Amino acid sequence: KDKGGDLGVSDSHKVLQEVFGYSSFREGQEEVIHAALKQQDVLGIMPTGAGKSLCYQIPALLFDGITVVVSPLISLMKDQVAALNQLGVHAAFINSSLSEGQYRKAMANACRGQYKIIYVAPERLMTESFLSFTSCVEISMLAVDEAHCISQWGQDFRPSYIKIVDFIQTLPKRPVVAAYTATATKAVKEDIICILGLKNPYVAVTGYDRENLFFAVKKPQNKQQELLFYLQKNKNSSGIIYCNTRKNVEEVYDSLIERGYPAARYHAGLCDSERKQSQDDFIYDIRPIMVATNAFGMGIDKSNVRFVIHYNMPKDIESYYQEAGRAGRDGEPAECILLYSGQDVRINEFLIEKQLENDELDFEERKLIRERDSERLQKMTFYCFTNECLRDYILRYFGEYGNTFCGNCENCLTEFDDIDVTQEVSTLIRMVHASGERYGINAIIEAVHGSKTAKVHKFHLEQSPGFGSLNQVTLVRIRQILNDMLLKGYLYLTPGDYPILKMTDKGHNLIFGESDEKIILKLPKEIEKAHTKQKQK
Ligand code: ADP
Ligand code: ZN
């Protein structure tokens, strides 16, 4: 009865054109759709905006039975169902936003076979009423949206996603299982396959590179000024400004409103109606500038976003790339700019701790998660300090190999001076070694610089050989060099509350091996000038 085996290329093209009104598939879509139609499990790893929904919606329309889509976000479900209904596709959602009456009606309709696609929140899967429905109809496919939520390594682990596994087991016939996510790290990918129990899945990873996006990191003295300056130069374009706290959203929002910018705001502290209003005003370009926390954006589809400015550094590259990736979905040039300050790092450390307190975890889990999160935060911080191609840095983080020169990021467009810092680097490593690899960044910097601070005194670092041997180099420069060393892997920081500097094998070899390696620090030409001027004064 199931015509699954015969479904193929021409059917899916027909649905693409006749139902969705698109002329051709985007990268990756066709392949995963055909795998699903041939009854093969699927794992689609595609960046935000790549068009994952279509990948399960098209097979859903072609299968005989019903497709169940597990999705974590109520607003996303609503939007998708509304969009499908508008295209004449019968779809519904089952989640906590339905009243008792609405819920009963939807389930009754579902049992009568009214819907081809049913979106459901993971918490609902194992309820009695949902199970009694799924036991008497044919479920052709189970699509798992935001599948990384099943992994503890993912950025937003949801315990309720584990219910999907139990749910599949209750079904009389195992459906095709198709998982989709934008998170591409190896650990997450393995978790999805393993925990969801995907059988010999067809795995599609489509390009993470978004060529039209320009990347830059700025470290302004005054972020607000920098932001206003940028907006002045980019009048009339639509953009998102992400802040790390509600308070920052309010401050930035107020300063924009004061100057007459058409800005909207969005964070979890606002009532539903204002959030809805803000979102609509933004999408329809009534207020084309959005100031928001990371609560904003999932499931938002606005193609003409010309810039995404991060007023604060996010907690990891996953979050950053996902949020920045909301710029330029139309393929036209767009800019992603991160405004860094040291305080962002500390606030993120605080947020990591707070999150750990909220989650109910045992000691071991807490330790593991803390380590993982601090490591990610470190890699995010390194992004702000690297002088190499920013795009390449991001792509390598996700395990893709880009060009070392993209020509469309700030670092690729900046001229650098090469400074030989071999001497300074070996002094720093020697200090770390001589003091027993027991101290953090500040203590080591102060010691080589010869600062007589309380910390240096307390740890008896004045007695270490090498104390003060970089007294001719400014503290700022020593810090730059040290950051670069962490980036290049001569030293590393232990994760946790009090990060300690330790030597890597590479660092060890540099001072004890027979290396005549020269270590070059790349610094932007302008900064270099300012720095030498300062020194001469
Ligand atoms: P994702 O879930 O991967 O972030 P969506 O499924 O929301 O992305 O798709 C993003 C946008 O791209 C939507 O507006 C969708 O209609 C559009 N889209 C998807 N596939 C195609 C296609 N083949 N041709 C044109 N537009 C498409
Ligand atoms: Zn580049």
Automatic annotation (TrEMBL):
Q: What is its EC number?
A: 5.6.2.4
Q: Name one GO cellular component term.
A: replisome
Q: Which UniProt keywords apply?
A: ATP-binding, DNA damage, DNA recombination, DNA repair, DNA-binding, Helicase, Hydrolase, Isomerase, Metal-binding, Nucleotide-binding, Zinc
Indicate the family of this protein: Belongs to the helicase family. RecQ subfamily.
Catalyses: Couples ATP hydrolysis with the unwinding of duplex DNA by translocating in the 3'-5' direction
Q: What class of enzyme is it?
A: isomerase
Query: Does the keyword ATP-binding feature in the UniProt annotation?
Result: yes
Q: Please give the biological process terms from Gene Ontology that the record holds.
A: DNA recombination; DNA repair; DNA replication; SOS response
Which terms does the record give in the GO molecular function aspect? 3'-5' DNA helicase activity; ATP binding; DNA binding; four-way junction helicase activity; hydrolase activity; metal ion binding
Q: Which stretches make up the Helicase ATP-binding domain?
A: 33-202
Helicase C-terminal domain mapped to chain residues: 223-369
Please, which domain of life does this record's source organism belong to? Bacteria
The residues of the intact protein that this chain contains are 7 to 543 of 632
Organism listed in the record: Blautia liquoris
From the Swiss-Prot or TrEMBL record, give the protein name. DNA helicase RecQ
Keyword Iron (UniProt)? no
Cofactor dependency: Zn(2+); Mg(2+)
